[in-house]
Amino acid sequence: MIKKIRQMPLYLVAIILLLFTGLPFFIMINTSFKSQLEFMTSPWSLPDSFSFSNYALLLDTNFFSYFKNSLIVSVISVIIVIIFGAMASYPLARLKFKLNTPLFLLFMVGMMIPIHTTLIPIYLLTINLGLYDTIWALIGPYVAFALPISVVIFTQFMKEIPKELEESAKIDGCGHIRLFWRIIFPLLTPAVATVAIYNFIHIWNEFIFALVLTNSSENATLPLGLREYYGEFTVNVPAIMAALTLGSLPLLLIYFVAQEKIVKGLAAGSVKG
Amino acid sequence: MQKSLGETSTQKSLSLNTSTKAMRKRREILTIIGFMAPALIIYGVYVVYSIGMTFYYSLFEWSGIDNNFSFLGLDNYVRLLQDGVFWVSLGNNSLLLGASLLTQLPLGLIMALLLFSPVKGMRLFRSVYFMPFLMSTVAIGILFVFIYDGNFGLLNDLLGMVGLESLQQSWIGKESTAIWAVIATVCWQFAPFYMILFRAAIVGIPEELYEAANIDGAKPLQRFKNITLPLLMPIIITSAILSIIGSLKYFDLIYVMTMGGPNNSTELMATYMYKQTFTNFNMGYGSTVSFSMFIIAFIVTLFILIGERKRRGVE
User: Fold this and answer.
1) Which residues of B161-192 are buried (b: 16+ CB within 10 A; e: fewer)?
2) Transmembrane segments in this chain: where (chain B) (predicted)?
């Protein structure tokens, strides 16, 4: 009993923080099921009848196109980052050569560079490449800015793979290319998971490159689409909340399915960086 | 028999030695190039080349929509130093930086420590605590615009319920409160991120240390001060670095919530750069602002690296 009383302050802090982090989500989801009138008269109460009409409204818009664009861009970018990042890390981790450290540092500096410093040249380059206002315009910058952290993670991970593995493969007459794909790459699974999770979340939510490099609604990614709804529905708050809920749902669902993996991947990714 | 076989093979390898060595070296260089080229080309074009070009454009007066370049040299930088709005935005970036360090890290630490306390239902708490970090910044910005709204915002509603009607106001519509409303939102978004970093570090602290402290009769606060905190120091420093660098790059939330307004009171370097470039069509001057962001980030990183090295030297 005494123990329980002593734990009271802990529960109090835990619940206050629960309200702090959770209340905005409650507001968002709760409001999304209400009519405009209901929101105005009783914003806090649970909806009288769970109405999906706000969600139905979204289905008539470009929502699935936004979703599809985000999915294509994120998946392709992450796959390219994994392949190119792991390849670039192989010489950095396993071979001795003069430019090894300078090249590694070159990638590492990329983590502190504000992306805005590259925005104008990338915008002009995209126009010149004829990629402006296509979803393909986004893959280059997304890969480029995901590479630094990925190279750092892969390099550190590869350095820990024992040398003997390689030596026995070399005796068998295995060249570097086969050695990398057959032996090293399959061993990278934990690092690949970290790189994939960390970059997928960031790319899925990325905003400024999408804002500058695309223009039309049909090429918008989800974050841009959400902003479009915000302008379109103006005072129809429940409809906007439905859009925000639906837009946030994919990552939240993945999170609830693979919570531990995602949390670990994010933590590992950030600390290594 | 065996011995003679060995001898012949060494002789052979000796005669081939010089040419194979050169060949092997060349093959190794080709291997390195082959493995690194794809990443280096993408990174080189989109990051390294782009930074160089930003500096180049910053030397011109150029709208970005026509071909009228006029070379100014460093005049844009002189203009920048006299530009009040730039200084306001730099000040706001610094305010955001300070506030982030003072709110996000402690809050993240408290959350992480709670996860290890004997509170029941911790799984639920943990899941909810982390959720804000998964939302896109754009979604967060829109959500909080409605929470802060002066007319039907739910924050005012909440204040009314607890009898603080006097505080009700249009939180992001007023110069005096807008930046703080934004800072609170940033804290909401990022505290969970530091929570998971701290959690990962706390998991790594050996249980025996606490057991030994218990035997010595250490109180919870003493255990925290003498075991947890010192062992968490490296991750606290890492988090501080992430928070500092992140604060210099901040853009999305301000763009969605306030566009830098009212009256530049929430302007950041990144939003100012965006406005100059894509709203006012001053690509030359916009490049100057963005290259200055690079210089500032570079100087800050340099200080951090030197500090790190000194700290490591002391240890």
Assistant:
1) eeeeeeeebbbbeeeebbbebbbbbbbbbbbb
2) 29-49, 95-116, 128-148, 178-197, 229-251, 283-306
